[in-house]
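Sharing a chain and its predicted structure for anyone who wants a worked example. Both blocks are below, sequence first, tokens second.
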Amino acid sequence: MRRPRPEAPALPSPRPPAPRRAAAALLAVLLAGAPPAAGAARADEAFVTSQPAETLSVVDLASRRVVATLAIAGKPAGIAVSPDGRRAFVTSPDGKALTIVDAAARRVERRVEVGGGPLGVAVHPSGSPAYVADWYRHRVVAVDAASGRITGEVETGDSPSGLAVTPDGALLVSADRDSDQISLIDTASLTRLGTIATGKRPFGVTIDAGGRRAYVANVASNDITVVDLAARTVVATVAVGERPYAVALAGGLGFTTDQYAGTVTVFDLATFAKKAAIPVGDYPEGIDASRDGSEVYVASWEANTLSVIDTATLKVVKEIDMADGPRAFGLFVRRTD
């Protein structure tokens, strides 16, 4: 039976490990540090947080294998990989911290105490700063990537969760879950420019490659709010599956993880028409797309899997076993070239 759980940073009540989960955890340890296949170029990677397991798993996306596992204390949830692939940033809600990881070396550089309830995280296109959503103190904190120094903060609405930055780095968007809105934040001055009403309980937010539209997953109204960022207006509301958590964009399509439905809803970005509902593991949460848009990757909390979806056929082509409770909330695909 599927276990109810909040979207908030608080960890769900513990459950005894099933044999499947224990086997997945053992597999991750055995494969940790394994090199790519002989003669193969190093493929792009997925950096997947597993909250109960307190780990960050690195998945080689070509071989579909876990190739490294890092211990991250404090129930890690949020993840953001810098656009250049140099660093990964991991939030730990229970640890009140941001962990900065050297992504290429696969080692922890430093751990920054940010206080409150750090959840969502995003990175400026330049690679610094990282922006951390503080669920409990209703703010976003900016952290310098190289030094770990907190350089500023800005007030948001209640319970900020997902964060996204426009490709030009000028605008930061915060999904303010308990205010039913997004906040628009100027990154240069770290000031809030305004707010836009969304559906009920916005959680994940994704911005398109052109920086024109934001797609906001509303967990309580079962829909996606599509926002024109320049006009600051809502251009569409797209009905999706039950309890939508986050959105990925690929090949002119939107892909939304539906927590309670155990599906990924696919919709057309031009017409907003529904194209498919793809069954994945129980409690799908984090979702991201490959750089070429050919694949979408889905972390399923209850199934302990990372599903690989072919965006041409809209079918799951691979399930990769993960450590217990993969969440991967944020942009978790890392470029390696």
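Comments welcome. The chain has a mean pLDDT of 90.
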